[in-house]
């Protein structure tokens, strides 16, 4: 039987009909009404109705950025949307007449990769989504781990530098301020501004404004500042994974997210840093560090599967 | 039916016959032959035989400091004893003719507290043993969490200060270098050496050598240096717990270990630091931070119960 | 008798005829040919000829950003212009037929303030020019201190954070990365990006791009992020001045530069931080921390006076 | 004509009759009455009288640890003795009937080295005395630099690590907490305690208590922990000298003090670290870094010469 998975992003809502093998039968897109969060449930319902038309759909799984409660019904707090205690499950379920499960988007991605992507055959997984920030998902004994109140796996918000850079979460020195796409760009900008002689290629490519794509392209062309920014990203990724391995001893890490389009520029170095910084190294097996396989659809597919096994 | 729990410490081996309610029926002690690790199994067998005499014993649980493998049979590496790939289960089982389960000592303590101590009624627990270092135990969904290779919960070895103090694990900047009994004493010694005018009471009490007891007593008498050392301990404890809550979202923390005899000197401040440093604070429930209840017997009782439910 | 002072800035060359009391008799301006550093000497000569016309001029003093050699003739290295071993004195002197003295621009400003501004009556002065970076000038026993090779007083390049932010000088963690106008803007931008709810006023004022003026105006209107950025600036200014006082024990500090137009937003707090962080505080007199008085003309007037007393 | 130099140390008062070439004609010693600071002046007077007997003495120079006022008469504050506003010059002069000059002990050493030791022929010198802490002396234009109130050159108290190790001066993170003999021993002790497998030689030599001599000897024998401690000392020495060069641009550094008996174990590395961390490197001459030459007598000889040229 089929389920529908929905991934609510900051700019678009993407949805798909997914079968029990994780195959996407049909997809549809909507723009996210980001300035009208009260309309998001309606947008989701709309795209679900379109996809459900003429099909036998068992349930709907919805991935959304934010702290989702332990009953998987309510988004308690979303940093990038104006939701506070938003009863998303009830709203959508009422509109579409189907069972609905809400899940944190990084959890949904982690689950998609676990079931149908890089995590197949693994039962203890730490999944990292390295995009503008760092999202996390944990799979223990083959099940998604949500913690006591559904808010586990905010991996990007371990503090790694005391009194470090300010973070969107209100704290300072969080991991995602040093090991995310934003961190990569920030580091490259700082070096380019202060040491332009090391950033000739980058400044040539970027014109006025340095973004991630220019840093990646410049690094590929040998730009010293861009390579230094990737090296910093890699070292911090490795350090944070070593911290997580000390705590969780996973069988593997899965690293995905937009920054991984440039994984050739940092992943090997991140592995080395991880190995060097792992507590007890030499006396324990090393977990694999794998690239995610499902790309942008991981969250949708994962949400659909979570709805199936709700 | 009864089981026997054994706790192998650096100086003594303590064992007890434990019933299904966690009650200790009888206890016995041996000195740890610390310089002859090859004799430890024999010592354990000896005390087990004594206790088992005339009783119907179902199984034996043994808690030992070190990395225990996922089959709970072999101590792969013990930082304080000369064990490397020590097949402790096979050895002891062969000597006593009973089923034997080996467990990391901090895990055994965590389990003891979970079943019969401060963790009763909780299913998602982070347990900290704050002694010379920091030991950790994790309970998820009511079961001890061991990770993929049995080495999870080395909580004291998250890095909290980049390039910080050297740690016994070979890395630098580990949490236990800032939030343990050793850290407390080190901080007090540094202040006393450099700013003796703030450490008059402490220096008066300690004579030549400052240890934990003198720091505690001096703090109780208002010694400024000792109070500063406890404040530092509390702030770092709170910060590390905030990191763990970001990752694990536990329902409660249990804090035990020798340093907790002075919990009145740091636990309230640690709670405040935790609350202040928690990511997403204000939008999520706060886990309780509870004192351990079973004291020095937690490990023995936990090991015995793990043997029962092996 | 009169001398001419010239201040070569990144965008304009400003020159003035100055009498022995530091009074400016006449002024003139030229655009700096920043992309043609070989033409700068000519530009200076041109404006000097214009001002010298019909006057009896004794000598010319020129302030320029860069490392000036101990004979005050050659700019060995200029971070912002393409000069390397530029024989500026010889060039200009040859063109205008007058004695010429070259001086580092921050030194010239320090001397101007010492002779005719905030430093009158003081003989041991540390002068800070807080603009995009931090420039420094030292006056000991009433004379400008140049060090052995003429390169002293690069005060902005003390390291204050190990492995800190990259600096234009090629090192990391330099003071000017934490206590300059650039640092102020960078801190405000980081907070605004990560914690926009604290930066509502600033984001409203700045539109797309946050610069120093918006941070200042927003701070005046109570913007939390902007006030935090000024607080950070103040604390780091105070800390660095405390370091300099440990080394140099000056009778006073003079703080000038563009950021001081907002001195009401940070100077009192900087004084407090200085006092709190001063080694031996309580057992030594406190140097005054004064605002510069001559504004943008300090460098020109200082250079003119250095030419008089060459 | 002859003068007498006196060096008041924590354990002994050493004095000598010195000629105009810095040659010591005769020496004498007394124990420092450290617990009776009121008796120190008398002890100094006593040894001066002994040495002056039958000689024509022009004046007496006295070096003492502490903040000496700008008139070189009063010790305002001594961290290691109970002096506060101690009128040492008046007391001693009254007892011996000779002109007396008081000087900070590190200043006296710097002056001794400048006139008769490693600093001959140099006019801009930064002198470091690396012992339990770091003492400093500055020579500019061939004269001792005292600052406005006589308290300059407290070089050990620049902050190099924000919120770092507590310092005897009441602040945190001071240079001498990272680059002194005490820092060397502290670092070696920490590594030996936490990573004893790297400190086998050191622990074998030291028995119970690790002190500087054991660290030096163990490093010579290849002990890994001791070598790491010397490497850390060297890197921090180099960094601090780079900071001082940015500010003062000296023609040379002189490095002395007890730790220099092991200069073969750190000085080359300190030079490399200095060169790597110097702002503007590649565009400026490098000051020499020289070893002190006068050993333990530098302070006495310097004080005697300061008395001659009072």
TrEMBL record, chains A, B, C, D:
Keywords: ATP-binding, Kinase, Nucleotide-binding, Transferase
A GO term for molecular function: glucokinase activity
Position of the signal peptide: none
SUPFAM superfamilies noted in UniProt: Actin-like ATPase domain (SSF53067)
InterPro entries: ATPase_NBD (IPR043129), ROK (IPR000600), ROK_cs (IPR049874), ROK_glcA (IPR004654)
EC annotation from Swiss-Prot or TrEMBL: 2.7.1.2
GO cellular component: cytoplasm
GO biological process, one term: glycolytic process
Matches recorded under PROSITE patterns: ROK
Keyword Transferase: yes
PANTHER family reported for this sequence: GLUCOKINASE, ROK (REPRESSOR, ORF, KINASE) FAMILY
Family per record: Belongs to the ROK (NagC/XylR) family.
Protein name from the UniProt record: Glucokinase
Species per Swiss-Prot/TrEMBL record: Nonomuraea rhodomycinica
